Sequence to fold (231 residues):
Amino acid sequence: MLSVIPNPPRIALPVAGSADLFPVRRVYCVGRNYAAHAREMGADPDREPPFFFMKPADALQSVGGEPAPHPYPPRTENYHFEIEMVAALGKGGRDIPVEAALDHVFGYAVGLDMTRRDLQDEAKRMARPWDLGKAADASGPIGPLHPVAAVGHPDRGAITLEVDGSLRQQGDLAEMIWSVAEQIAYLSAYFELAPGDLIFTGTPSGVGPVRRGERMTGAVAGLGQIVLDVV
Ligand code: MN
Fold:
């Protein structure tokens, strides 16, 4: 049988240190997973269970070792960076226990959960979905995947974002409220997870706007950095 339209391309992320690719299925993102960021968003980090939203997989922007142009999206005056570590699942399942959860991770990458904050704020005010704020085209820049076999399971170390060389976000993976294992276990109670799923694991405090002409450099200790020139 023929497809009646061209097959949509499926995004696949390069695996660092090899010529292999990691095809992406779904992209889950956790909200307010660092206490200081939860407070800057006006929430109480001690009382809220984790919550998740999704980005379309085709909103990812695969970024290599060179600075990449990043398109400023339409319909926003307040486009924010959120530096995040991304976990990539190599195995799926339902009701995965916390103790077994990390066995499902293939690797980790540096990512940005770019956000039209003005539209997200409006959605919050009006009790509407976040998609217009969170799912802009190219709103998920992500670097190469580093396999667990090479980097283990990073649970401490610096996570930073600079704009034009000035430090804007600085946190430590150890400050996550919900660990990667807990996020996988929690999600797997709501969805059947599958190989190819990504989880953006939350951002430290210091989120803020970026403008055309500025350069963002996002880094996670042990996972390298991505550099984006906003155009
Ligand atoms: Mn985020």
User: Anything to note?
Assistant: Residues 86 and 200 are 5 Å apart (CA to CA). The mean pLDDT is 96. Residues 12-230 form a domain with the Fumarylacetoacetate hydrolase; domain 2 fold (CATH 3.90.850.10).
